[in-house]
Amino acid sequence: MEARQHEDLRDFVDSLEEEWLREVPDLHTAGLAVVARLVRMSYYIARRVDSNLARFGLTRGEFEVLAVLTRNPDAKITPKDIHAKILITSGGLSNRIRKLEEKGLIVRMPDQSDGRGVVLKVTEKGRELTLKAVTSHVEVECQLVEGLTAQDREALSGLLKKLILSQSRVLNPHGLS
What we know:
By secondary structure, the protein is mainly alpha-helical. Helix content is 66%, strand content 8%. It is built from 8 helices and 2 strands. It has helices at residues 2-8, 12-23, 32-54, 60-71, 79-85, 90-102, 124-144, 150-171, and strands at residues 106-111, 114-122. Strands 1-2 form a two-stranded antiparallel sheet. Helix 4 crosses helix 6, helix 4 packs across helix 7 (124-144) and helix 5 crosses helix 6 (90-102).
């Protein structure tokens, strides 16, 4: 019964596709429904995540940097390593690093193997904040998908992974997905 209820529901994307097809009947819309819903969901996710992280005095970008460092406390993490793990320009990353350092959440240390480079480390204050924030962050993620069954979440996760890997090979053939 629940599956049938969802099939009867309409959203903005249903109207969007119908409107385009009414104006351009031969428009190839195979990707429209999926991509438009991903874009809308991305917006909803960003709003919830940003609002939640703001409670901790963090932006999403700052949290991403802190998360990499907190998950890998014994690793030698350079800005280049972080750049490979998160989607950001090098200039944007430099600003994040500077702000986190000003807040006392990370430190830059000389890279012993590269005299010109630096290694980033999370401070104890940064680690404590990140661990509090990640618990809340994961709860928000659970809330965002609570309308799906465990089987639906697994299927959606697999399909999104497949899409990400296909695009990563095209857009970033030598990097991480």
